[in-house]
Design brief:
Length: 160
């Protein structure tokens, strides 16, 4: 099955994707996806230069942290330390310091991605105190990035 993407190119959806990860795209149609993209709550058929300029002027600095498996990721007791790492992430999220937390679940060495509400120095100071980082179960990279205040992950459920 082919669907139209937001950028106008075609995406191939595998035949076994009866419940796609982004069901709102197929179920609601392209116009609704564009409607969700619009900051004014109106259906936009075109992204104008003025819109891009306005949105870019609202961008601000954040930090992205990329977590990878560390040299001690298989050590005895690693699961308990990862549990405390997870608990700490929820605390940072509740305090508004780590609004986006994305564990990576594909079994690769990439363990997760997080977006910090602060500069890269703040992100590094927080990550240096992370129990999994301190124990070498996880290692990280921190990079400055820019995004738009108020952006968030869509609500709703995709495939499990």
């Amino acid at each position: 099955m082919l669907i139209q993407s937001l950028l106008g190119s075609e995406l191939l959806v595998p035949p076994d994707a009866s419940t796609p990860r982004m069901p709102h795209i197929l179920a609601a149609g392209y116009a609704t996806v564009v409607h969700n993209f619009s900051s004014r709550g109106t259906i936009m058929s075109e992204i104008t230069d003025e819109f891009v300029t306005q949105m870019l002027s609202r961008a601000r600095d954040f930090s992205i942290v990329i977590l990878k498996a560390g040299p001690n990721d298989s050590s005895p007791g690693a699961e308990k330390i990862i549990w405390e790492h997870t608990r700490r992430n929820f605390l940072l999220r509740a305090r508004g310091l780590l609004p986006i937390v994305c564990p990576v679940t594909d079994g690769s060495d990439l363990a997760g991605i997080g977006i910090f509400n602060g500069d890269v120095y703040l992100a590094r100071s927080i990550m240096d105190q992370d129990p999994a980082v301190k124990e070498g179960i996880l290692v990280y990279e921190a990079h400055p990035c820019r995004s738009f205040p108020g952006d968030c992950l869509p609500s709703g459920r995709g495939q499990g």
